[in-house]
C-alpha cells in the first residue's frame, strides 16, 4: 500500500513521501491503531472506531487488518472553474478565479443537500471498495497542471467534505503552493484539531458553514455533532492563521429565526472579529426538504441588517447563492483532457495485496459481518 503517513497527536504529515501515480489505497493520515485490531480515525469529530473490514461514517476510509486506508485518493467527482466569490469568498483575492474540485463522501447527512450523489457518494465509494469504479483519477501533479492550463489563481476543495480525502488535499495543496496557486477549503468544520493543524501550512482560506446555533439542528444532520464542536473548529482555524469566511444557508422553518441568526453574527463578531466576513445565503428546495419553499429574500436582508447591527463590518446577503453545487458542471473528462472512453476503465488498487475482487474483498466483508457467511 502507498503510505502518506500514519500520524498520531500533532505530528506533521510526511508530505515528502512518494505520491501515487495510479489509483490505489493510501494510508489514512490521522489514525490510532488499537491493540485488538480496531482503528480510530482522527480526521473528523466522528472519530469512528472501526474493526477489520469496516468503513467509517463517511464511507471513504476502511480498516484492513488493523490499518486504516483512504478509498478516494485522486478520485474526482466534479470540477469547475469559477470566481472565488462563488464559494463565497470576498476578502481573499476577490478578483481571482479558482478551480473547484471534489471527490466522494461526507461526515454529515444534510436533508437539503444539493450534491447528494457526490457528497454522500455511497454508490461511488461502494464501487471503489469492490474494484468496480470507473470514476476519473488524477494525480496531484495532474490536478495542478490542469489548474495551470486553465489559468486559474487557486484550487478550491469543495462539493464533498474535504476532510474525507485530506491525504489528497494536502498533496495537491503542497504542489499548488509550489506552483504559485493558493488553496481554498470549503467545509462544514466538523473536523479535529489534529486535522486543522496538519492543514494549516497548506490551506490559505477556510470557507465554513455555521448552519445554526441549535443543538437540535446539528443532531438532525449529524447524530454525534454539537454546535460547540463546529464553532470550536472554526475558531481554531482562525487561530492557526487561516483566512476564515463563514456562511449560513437560511432554511425556512429550520434556522430562519432572526434572533438565532443575530446570535450567529454575534458569535462571529466576538470570536473571529468585527471584520470577519459573514455570508447569508438562500435555501433552494432539494432532497428531503423539497417540500419547503425557497427562502424569502426578506429574511436574507433582515439577517444581514442584524449582522451589521451587532458590529460586523462585512456582511453579505446573497439571494442567488445557496450551496456550492456541482449539478451543472462540465464533465470531469473535459477538464482533465481525458478521452471519455478512458472513464470506462475500472479503477483497481495498484497494490498487489488487494487481489482481483477489489479492496473490500468478500473475505474481509464476511469477517466484518457485512456479508452473509453462506454467500
Describe it for me?
Mean pLDDT is 87; it is low at 1-14. The chain has eleven helices and 16 strands. It has helices spanning 116-119, 122-129, 140-149, 166-178, 193-199, 215-221, 227-239, 258-271, 297-309, 332-336, 362-367, and strands at 26-27, 31-33, 39-41, 49-50, 61-64, 67-70, 75-76, 78-83, 97-102, 136-137, 154-157, 182-187, 205-209, 243-250, 278-282, 315-317. By secondary structure, the protein is of the alpha/beta class. 27% of the residues lie in helices and 17% in strands. The protein is globular. The strands form four sheets. An eight-stranded mixed beta sheet has the order 8-9-11-12-13-14-15-16. Strands 1-6-5 form a three-stranded antiparallel beta sheet, with no helix packed on it.
What characteristics describe this protein?
11 helices; globular; eight-stranded mixed beta sheet; alpha/beta; about 375 residues; three-stranded antiparallel beta sheet
Shape type: globular
As laid out across the biggest beta sheet, the strand order is: 8-9-11-12-13-14-15-16
Which regions contain 5 or more consecutive residues with pLDDT less than 50? Answer: 1-14
Number of strands: 16
Topology at a glance:
Blueprint: E1 26-27, E2 31-33, E3 39-41, E4 49-50, E5 61-64, E6 67-70, E7 75-76, E8 78-83, E9 97-102, H1 116-119, H2 122-129, E10 136-137, H3 140-149, E11 154-157, H4 166-178, E12 182-187, H5 193-199, E13 205-209, H6 215-221, H7 227-239, E14 243-250, H8 258-271, E15 278-282, H9 297-309, E16 315-317, H10 332-336, H11 362-367
Parallel strand pairs: 9-11, 11-12, 12-13, 13-14, 14-15, 15-16
Antiparallel strand pairs: 1-6, 2-3, 3-4, 5-6, 7-10, 8-9
Helix pairs in contact: 3-4, 8-9
Amino acid at each position: 500500500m502507498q503510505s502518506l503517513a500514519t500520524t498520531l497527536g500533532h505530528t506533521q504529515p510526511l508530505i515528502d513521501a512518494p505520491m501515487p501515480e495510479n489509483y490505489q489505497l493510501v494510508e489514512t493520515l490521522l489514525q490510532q491503531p488499537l491493540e485488538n485490531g480496531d482503528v480510530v480515525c482522527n480526521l473528523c469529530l466522528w472519530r469512528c472506531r472501526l474493526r477489520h473490514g469496516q468503513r467509517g461514517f463517511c464511507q471513504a476510509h476502511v480498516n484492513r487488518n488493523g490499518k486504516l486506508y483512504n478509498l478516494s485518493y485522486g478520485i474526482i467527482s466534479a470540477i469547475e472553474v469559477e470566481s472565488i466569490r462563488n464559494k463565497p469568498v470576498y476578502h481573499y483575492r476577490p478578483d481571482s478565479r479558482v478551480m473547484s474540485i471534489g471527490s466522494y463522501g461526507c461526515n454529515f447527512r444534510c436533508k437539503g443537500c444539493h450534491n447528494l450523489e457526490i457528497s454522500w457518494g455511497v454508490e461511488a465509494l461502494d464501487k471503489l471498495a469492490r474494484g468496480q469504479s470507473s470514476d476519473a483519477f488524477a494525480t496531484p501533479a495532474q490536478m495542478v497542471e490542469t489548474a495551470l492550463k486553465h489559468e486559474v489563481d487557486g484550487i478550491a476543495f469543495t462539493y464533498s467534505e474535504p476532510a474525507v480525502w485530506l491525504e489528497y488535499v494536502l498533496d495537491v495543496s503542497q504542489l499548488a503552493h509550489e506552483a504559485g496557486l493558493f488553496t481554498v477549503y470549503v467545509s462544514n468544520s466538523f473536523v479535529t484539531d489534529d486535522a486543522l493543524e496538519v492543514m494549516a501550512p497548506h490551506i490559505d482560506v477556510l470557507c465554513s458553514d455555521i448552519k445554526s446555533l441549535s443543538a437540535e439542528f446539528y443532531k438532525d444532520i449529524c447524530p454525534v455533532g454539537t454546535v460547540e464542536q463546529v464553532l470550536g473548529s472554526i475558531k481554531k482555524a482562525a487561530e492557526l492563521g487561516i483566512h476564515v469566511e463563514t456562511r449560513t444557508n437560511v432554511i425556512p422553518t429550520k434556522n430562519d429565526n432572526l434572533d438565532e441568526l443575530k446570535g450567529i453574527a454575534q458569535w462571529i463578531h466576538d470570536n473571529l472579529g468585527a471584520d470577519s466576513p459573514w455570508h447569508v445565503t438562500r435555501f433552494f428546495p432539494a432532497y428531503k426538504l423539497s417540500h419547503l419553499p425557497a427562502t424569502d429574500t426578506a429574511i436574507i436582508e433582515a439577517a444581514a441588517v442584524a449582522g451589521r447591527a451587532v458590529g460586523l463590518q462585512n456582511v453579505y446577503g446573497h439571494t442567488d447563492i445557496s450551496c456550492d453545487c456541482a449539478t451543472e458542471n462540465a464533465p470531469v473528462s473535459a477538464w482533465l483532457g481525458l478521452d471519455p472512453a478512458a472513464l470506462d476503465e475500472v479503477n483497481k488498487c495498484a497494490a498487489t495485496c488487494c487481489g482481483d475482487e477489489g479492496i473490500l474483498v468478500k473475505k474481509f466483508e464476511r469477517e466484518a459481518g457485512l456479508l452473509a457467511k453462506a454467500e
